[in-house]
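Minutes, project check-in
Item: structure for the 247-residue chain
Input as provided by the requester:
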Amino acid sequence: MKIAFTDDIWSRLYGPYGNRSVNMQLMALSERWDNDVAKELFWEELHHQDDIYPTTFAALPWLLEISPSTGKAFEETHLFLSHVIHCACVEGGTGCDGTGPRGKYRGLSTDIADHQHSWLPQSEWLSIEDQPVLIRLEQWFSENWAMIAKRCLNLVSSDLVISAHAIEGFASANGGSRVAWSTQLFADGEDVDFISRELGAYDDCDTMTVAKLFPYLQDRNPDLASFMLNYPGCNYVPGDPRQSNLD
């Protein structure tokens, strides 16, 4: 679902500051990748305070195609992609208070009225004629988030912080947003008692998420795996044949 860089819908696919020529930035990166330019695009134009936007979803197919497959560029891009999946799939609406409209995914309502914001010039509003594009972007994300999230798991390593951020998209999209939040607090140095008081115990969805993540963590980051297994409420026991339905 790559939208041509010359398509005029980019002038209506807004981000946190309205339209900022994301298509032109993507085209420049496709010609010559620059990590600093990419990071600026990720965290300033496609994301703001855990909100994501129509232009974010439109950028994703291009980022998968044009970003390098190794090295620091792969790491930076896939940490961003993991966070985007988390933002898209976690509960709550848009806006700082989380009470704004959302569709199946945060930031990508297919109701055109949800995108006609007072802080955007009316000349840049998405129109009903643009609705099919939003629907196709939603479908593309539904078909591809799992693949992207698994690619992000390639970043799991002995580095606790990178690993915690690499798994957050996979965890949240699989119903384990508490797993995502708790592991990041653990990576930040908080102890399990404090974290469990703040977030509560894992539930069945969290436990199932741990079971799905465990094969990626057990050898590459045993500290993170151990934290999850010992977190209050986690009932997953690796190797227990009675829990084969969790894997």
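Outcome recorded: The mean pLDDT is 94.
No further action items on this chain.
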